[in-house]
Amino acid sequence: MNETAFSGQSFQAELGSRALFPDLETRVYLNHASLSPPSSAVREAVLRAMDGYAHKGMAWYVEAMESRDRLRAQLARLMSAPVEDLALIANTTAGILDVALSLPWRRGDRVLLLEGEFPTNITPWQQAARRHGLELLWMQAEDFRLDRERALERLETELRLGIRLVAMSAVQFTTGQRMPLETVGALCRQHGAEFFVDAIQALGIVPIDVEAMGIHYLSAGSHKWLMGPEGLGCLYVHPDAAERLEPNVAGWLSHTDAFAFLTEGAGHLRYDRPFQHGARMVESGTFNTLGACGLEASIGLIEQLGVARILEHVQAWHDAIEPELIQRGFESARMPDADGRSGTLSLHPPGPAPDWARQLARRGISCASPDGWLRLSPSWPNSIEEVPIVLAAVDEIMAKGLGNP
Ligand SMILES: Cc1ncc(COP(=O)(O)O)c(C=O)c1O
């Protein structure tokens, strides 16, 4: 048995079991695409880190550094990347800003964005555009769901006209549409564009292979499908792309041998040390150790189960509820092909989605309503036995009327 062990305690994840979430008050938790509750493994790891500092102060920092190294290796495995191409960052936004601020832009460079994306993957590019005179081009994320072939044709046309960078999410936060990263990445490579992926809605729930997908940059945060604490994330930078980045966001920890002046005696306090190579350049200052310990514990559980098995489990959950909801008048956004599906099942309900989310919350069911969709996002702890509970709540809401308590 491949267990995750911390300070003598061990935790075993089981598909469909909430045993590691003993205090979760929500009856059915369908909100992993928003924020995941911490498992016992995460809670224990964070407490252990806090206790480590409480008992040993600075002497515990070495253990924190080791946890960070293990975490980088775990994240690298999750996206099939070499560990040296990966940095730990504060959140998805930070990784996007790091790249947007560090690319040697030329005036008039064209950047292709998707309308309908979460703003995290828009605002930093808008700021870079304002500062460097870039041209932003827009396509509709929904076009990739409703007519994928035509959307890819349009993308290729734009690439032929010259695009510096394409930025998109691996999974759309509204509809759960898994984007055709492999095809887009190949097109970008073919036409000399760089490819940036926001993977917070994918990492830990759908397989990601940065090399096979032709990804140059990938940024993701910890608190959704990775089920770690907030305030932590990772940035992948392909070695070719790393060559291009300027050290515009570098800080004291970006230098090689950054600690030498603290540990090696006099004569090492210098400001001209070279910067760490590649992605690690963006690890610029003191870091969220508690979060890293928690995330390491959470990914340990995900690795026990395997991303492919978690996705399969979640698809079975979606399979069980989707036809029932369609029969009740809901319109599903789910992609017909398996490779377009993710952990999120989104639907247009009969009536306003926020009202549905509120009514379901009153009945102990947690879900979200981004941009008018009712978003159900179960993960590995969700059981198929929850499906009839959700359907009973839906029937009750329909019988009483959405406006009634
Ligand atoms: C696609 C996507 N990107 C990014 C974020 C969050 O970005 P950050 O980690 O910077 O808060 C979210 C949700 O909060 C999201 O759905």
TrEMBL record:
Requisite cofactors: pyridoxal 5'-phosphate
Pfam families xrefs: Aminotran_5
Keywords, in A-Z order: Pyridoxal phosphate
Q: Does the keyword Glycoprotein apply?
A: no
Domain of life from the UniProt record: Bacteria
State whether keyword tRNA processing applies: no
Family to which the UniProt record says this protein belongs: Belongs to the class-V pyridoxal-phosphate-dependent aminotransferase family.
PANTHER family to which the protein is assigned, alphabetical: BLR3095 PROTEIN, CYSTEINE DESULFURASE
Which protein, by its recorded name, is this?
Cysteine desulfurase
